[in-house]
Amino acid sequence: MRKRVITLASALLVGLSANAQKVEFEEYNLNNGMHVILHQDNSAPVVTTSVMYHVGAKDEQPNRTGMAHFFEHLLFEGTKNIKKGEWFKIVSSNGGTNNANTTDDRTYYYEVFPSNNLELGLWMESERLLHPIIGQEGVDTQNEVVKEEKRLRVDNQPYSRFLENVKKNMFKKHPYKGTTIGKMEHLDAATLEEFLAFNKKYYVPNNATLVVAGDFEVKEAKRLIKSYFEPIPRGKDIVRSFPKEDPITKEFFAKAYDPNIQIPAIMAAYRTPSMKTRDARVLDMISTYLSGGKSSVLYKKLVDTKKMALQAGAINLSQEDYGTYILFALPLGDNSLQSLVKEIDEEVVKLQTNLISEKNYQKLQNKFENNFVNANSSVEGIANSLARYNVLYGDTNLINTEIDIYRSITREEIREVAKKYLNTNQRLVMEYLPESKK
């Protein structure tokens, strides 16, 4: 009886949290094609202004990789009305913070200000779009910044190249085979005219979503947005036509080397569908089941119980066009990489054969409920989610409804999706080795 009461109480709390977490928003288009999303929350005197551009590493030319990430840096250089080196000073002196980030699929810029600086945030983002200064001096400066970032985050970090090596083996045609940071020789070879052309093509209002979230008055925000953004000319429509990958029908093998590691690793990677699909969400649940914390299947088996691995887990890298599902482990002691693959495969076969327990299923549901609540717990997080769901999924209201997709996933679906995608004849097995063993 006690268990039944607890279950009902939990269900009630879930229902209340879902209602409390509903994100209200308004969205519309400007005449130049810019999409605008407004989320008013007057509970704290802060406001986020952000713009997500639908441009990422996959939009680059094969011999000019790194352009999208480079622009993430370059567009802080200054504008017609913001002098070189002044961007961050303006933000900080007005009590704000700001940042930007780039993926294979999009680039995102944002500021968080005290709410009385809404106009400042909108003006700065309109300046970035309308009046950027893209000159050789700025290009040269940011080239050195990007190179230093690559040295710190990639060249000198252990295991930092594993994803790069997985992707270049998994994708032979689609531009996901590259890296977001790109190749430095490509950036060195790029001309100023090429940087200007990239900006002209992708940094246009009809390729952008503006989000204002936080403490503001809607009528005033609309007036300011119209004033600052609507005069910006529409760009040419962007047509994307990326090559399709051939299905993987036979297990294949590769080796990669890293001078910064002493312990090797093994990866089994599978190509999976777009993050917009239901199957991608099921794979999210599978990866959490296999490696979501110390009580997860792979950690308990390989690290805790058998003490065969230092680490073991699963990564569901979902992207706009494809996904990459990666199972990995680092051996402990004399355990071989092949023995780790064997142990991991046993757990995958169990998933493909049997239903996970009702207890584990409820545990998964609780974790995803918690993730949903946390993602929408701050105005800054809500702004990011609103932009992402609009730009990459084409459905802004997924900020409220995606959790319903996860709630509706059944144990039977988990089994069937594992059977559909996680088969040995559909994968890459890659040994990631210390350079000295080459």
Automatic annotation (TrEMBL):
Residues 36-181 form the Peptidase M16 N-terminal domain. GO terms for biological process: proteolysis. It comes from the Bacteria. InterPro entries: Metalloenz_LuxS/M16, Pept_M16_N, Peptidase_M16, Peptidase_M16_C. GO terms for molecular function: metal ion binding; metallopeptidase activity. Residues 1-20 form the signal peptide. Residues 190-367 form the Peptidase M16 C-terminal domain. Keywords: Hydrolase, Metalloprotease, Protease, Signal, Zinc. It holds the Pfam family Peptidase_M16_C. Belongs to the peptidase M16 family. This is Putative Zn-dependent peptidase. The lineage of its organism: Bacteria, Pseudomonadati, Bacteroidota, Flavobacteriia, Flavobacteriales.
